[in-house]
Design brief:
Blueprint: H1 36-41, H2 51-165, H3 167-172, E1 175-180, E2 183-189, H4 190-193, H5 203-218, E3 222-229, H6 239-242, H7 246-263, E4 272-276, H8 289-295, E5 297-306
Parallel strand pairs: 3-4
Antiparallel strand pairs: 1-2, 2-5, 3-5
Helix pairs in contact: 2-5
């Protein structure tokens, strides 16, 4: 039986909007409105009671199924992305740890380099300092070499002059001129200068000392020690009262030679030193007369050390 046509223009009825909880990430669908043209061509019939409710639930079911499908696809895309992000973050953390390790090693290398640089700078400074010390020592060595050469020249000149002026006494064995280290020693036998057991100079001794005095004056910057020596025979007779022991005798003889060089030969007193050694520095054995004669002597030594500055 045909449905009756409605009187007047029928208004289209929108599809029912699905109800239910919204799905995250999926926008809610807008109500669907049928177009006017379609409504005009379709003859409206009266539906039986309850048909609109069936269509409403059917639309909602289709929409829910579509939403669930879309959500599944989205979740399927997001889950792998999140796992990959976790994997990348873990890898990034590992790289960051390695980077920190490399930075630590680099800092250690820089510290070692800094220490090496400091050590090198210190070594260079020390090397420069040592080079300066070496240069100073070399200069000092050269100066000492020049001083030694100068002293040796003085000794050779003085020795040559004494050997020329005392040639006869040297040949006779009464005088000796020799080097002893960096000193020049003139040995004069006591018999040339004194009578046996006496400390007073004789005429022959004065002649010899005048020639020695010329050499002393020619070396004004050097000191000369006059030393008296005896044999080991004790002083006897009347001399005991004046010279109780060989100490007094050897010292008296040295003192008289010094006084003669200063007063008669005009040698400055600051160049002269008197000393007595008695029998304690022999040059030969005292067991025979020949050795005793050698031990009784006066030694005039040109000392190595120069005179101190002053008048």
């Amino acid at each position: 039986m045909p449905l009756p046509k409605p009187h007047g223009e029928a208004k289209p009825e929108p599809f029912p909007t699905p109800v239910g909880p919204p799905i995250p990430g999926v926008p809610a669908p807008a109500p669907v409105q049928p177009s006017a043209e379609v409504i005009d061509d379709v003859e409206l019939v009266e539906e039986p009671s309850g048909s609109s409710s069936v269509w409403s639930w059917l639309g909602w079911g289709l929409f829910a199924a579509a939403s669930i499908a879309i959500a599944a696809v989205v979740l399927g895309l997001l889950v792998p992305s999140r796992d990959e992000a976790r994997s990348l973050r873990a890898e990034l953390d590992g790289v960051a740890g390695e980077l920190e390790g490399v930075r630590g090693e680099l800092a250690g290398i820089r510290d070692e380099l800094s220490q090496s640089q400091t050590a090198r700078d210190s070594a260079e400074d020390k090397s420069d300092e040592m080079a300066g010390q070496v240069a100073a020592l070399e200069q000092q060595r050269d100066q000492l070499a020049q001083t030694i050469a100068s002293k040796e020249a003085e000794l050779e000149t003085a020795q040559k002059k004494l050997e020329e002026s005392l040639g006869e006494e040297i040949k006779a064995g009464d005088v000796s001129v020799k080097k002893r280290g960096d000193e020049l020693v003139v040995g004069v036998a006591s018999r040339v200068l004194f009578e046996r057991g006496d400390a007073q100079l004789n005429d022959r001794g004065k002649k010899v000392l005048r020639r020695v005095g010329e050499t002393i004056i020619a070396n004004a910057e050097r000191a000369f020690q006059v030393a008296g020596h005896t044999d080991d025979d004790p002083v006897t007779g009347q001399l005991v009262a004046e010279y109780p022991t060989n100490w007094e005798l050897s010292t008296a003889r040295a003192t008289n030679v010094v006084r003669f060089l200063q007063e008669d030969c005009k040698v400055p007193g600051r160049q002269l030193v008197a000393a007595g050694f008695a029998e304690h520095r022999p040059t030969a054995s005292n067991k025979n007369e020949r050795g005793k004669r050698k031990n009784r002597r006066i030694e005039i030594t040109m000392l190595a050390r120069p005179l101190p500055k002053g008048k």
